[in-house]
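Chain X:
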Amino acid sequence: MLTRIFASLCLTLLLAPSAMAEGTNIAFGGPKADTTLPVEINADALSISQADGMAVFSGNVMVTQGVMKLSANEMRVQYAADKKGIEKLFASGKVLLVNATDAAEAEQAVYTIASGQVEMSGNVLLTQGQATMAAQKLVIDLKTGTGRLDGRVTTTFVPGKN
């Protein structure tokens, strides 16, 4: 009997880290975002490098695409190879992503326009109503309105209010 309990405990301890590594799936932002809408960027300053196809927006940067808003201290824009569109946005410093009813904060984020995926990292804090979730990484699919928290996930909620 003791051997069976010990074996069960060992199996639980072995499986626990892999279950934690799987992350936590969540809904994000209410209605799905339309990633085909125009992307508008506002900032205090802009510098462009034709050589590497990058533009850097700095100071009070605000990106708007439909109901999605992404703000940061600095935003690097990587243009597509054909130079006819934006491929990725790299946000750093006090990053805030707001989509309809939800908001997420992080130290940095990468938004891949074509896929509609936003990967946020560094002290991520997700707020949904009165509930909050914290982790080291949050990957959001704006097209499906879903997300995934990875790393040590901490959730705080108010019973009966969420």
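Chain Y:
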Amino acid sequence: MKKLTVSLFGIVVFLFTMSGTGNALLFSDTQFLLQSLSGTGTYSWDHATPDNFVVPPCTVNSAHLTIVGWLVDGNNDQVAVEQTLQGTLNNSWFIFPSVSIFDIGDVFVSWPVAGADLHVSLNYIETGWCNSLYLTSSTFCLDYEPAQAPVPEPATLLLLGSGLLYLAGFKRKSKD
């Protein structure tokens, strides 16, 4: 009886591990900008996206853009992602960097081209006390679920049937 219980437990564990569910994938892309900006203008850059990422069928759980800069002042430096205004950079003190985090999940309502770059632009006005802005880096983080493949019913039935045949053979062997 002990062997049957151990065997049955092993089969159940095997079945559960073989029938895994889709997990969310994390993707991150960092661009080191290292740009000093002064006066008024627009600065743009791109972030890579996953090669298999298309909405739908992929589902976006969350998406964030983090921009790090120095000497940010005035709350007048506007960040746009895919031509959608996301907000302004946070002010910074002279000795501390500005870290601005934007929730950009709304940009991915529809993302039709797999592997297309994410376009980011910064409209800046640097006429304040330091007259310059220094961008250090930009990091794009994406948490998404890829498209789920259809459940292969014949393979599932074959796996279940082979497990039942094993149990029947094990029970017959223990009776002999």
